[in-house]
Amino acid sequence: MRKTKELDEKDCVILNLLQENCRMSLTDISKKVGLSIDSVKKRIKRMIKDNIFFPKIQLRPRNFGFKNIVDIKIKLHNYSEKDIKEFIEYLKENPNVAEIFSISGDWNFSIVIIAKDAIDLGRIAGEIRNKFSKIIDTWSESLTTCVYKFENYDMVKLMEKKENE
């Protein structure tokens, strides 16, 4: 069983601050959490090392010409382990596939495709569906029209809830 990483309240506040502004200075963070700059820097390095988070930028595809962000649910059938590996590798190599999730429930995969327009989306989806027509049983698309919350975690509240359970 994998051991859960222990976070204290100051770690949680640091994580919340970095989610709000990942470019916040160590000086500003240290003032807000009441720790020295060195302590904040050590905590951030430890959390990165412990895979609590990883620093990255979040792109906004619509702002650079990809107006269609489409969530696709895929149900497979008659597939082998080799088929799945080939399918995943193909999706990973496709620059228009932004996310790939293996999921439980009625669907096997959830992927996110970014496309310039409906014609581009049809081409991208068609290529995937044609290449893997032998194993794709059902395909359902939904266009993302607006994002209200995306991977934003209030770590202080989550840890408080965890402690109360």
Describe the structure.
- With 165 residues, this protein is an alpha+beta fold.
- It folds into two domains: 1-57, Orthogonal Bundle (Arc Repressor Mutant, subunit A), CATH 1.10.10.10; 61-143, Alpha-Beta Plaits.
- It contains six helices and four strands; from the N terminus they run H-H-H-E-H-E-E-H-E-H.
- Strands 2-3-1-4 form a four-stranded antiparallel β-sheet.
- The chain starts with 8 loop residues before the first helix and ends with a helix.
- The mean pLDDT is 93.
Brief rundown of the structure:
This protein has 165 residues and is an alpha+beta fold. The chain has helices spanning 9-20, 26-33, 37-49, 81-93, 118-131, 155-164; strands at 68-76, 97-102, 109-115, 136-143.
SSE layout:
Elements lengths: L8 H12 L5 H8 L3 H13 L18 E9 L4 H13 L3 E6 L6 E7 L2 H14 L4 E8 L11 H10 L1
Antiparallel strand pairs: 1-3, 1-4, 2-3
- Low-confidence runs (pLDDT<50, min 5 residues)? none
Q: What is the H-and-E element order?
A: HHHEHEEHEH
The secondary-structure class comes to: alpha+beta
Whole-number radius of gyration? Answer: 20 Å
Inertia-based shape = elongated
Helix content: 40-55%
Query: How many beta-strand elements?
Result: 4
CATH architecture of the largest domain: 2-Layer Sandwich
Question: What distance lies between the first and last C-alpha atoms, to the nearest angstrom?
Answer: 20 Å
Average pLDDT value?
A: 93
Which CATH class of the largest domain applies here? Answer: Alpha Beta
Strand order of the largest sheet: 2-3-1-4
SS summary, helix count: 6
| Main sheet: strands, sense, barrel | 4 strands, antiparallel
Instruction: Give me the CATH superfamily of the largest domain.
Output: Lrp/AsnC effector binding domain/regulation of amino acid metabolism (RAM) domain
Beta-strand portion reads: 15-25%
The tally of structural domains comes to 2
User: Which fold name fills CATH's third level, the topology of the largest domain?
Assistant: Alpha-Beta Plaits
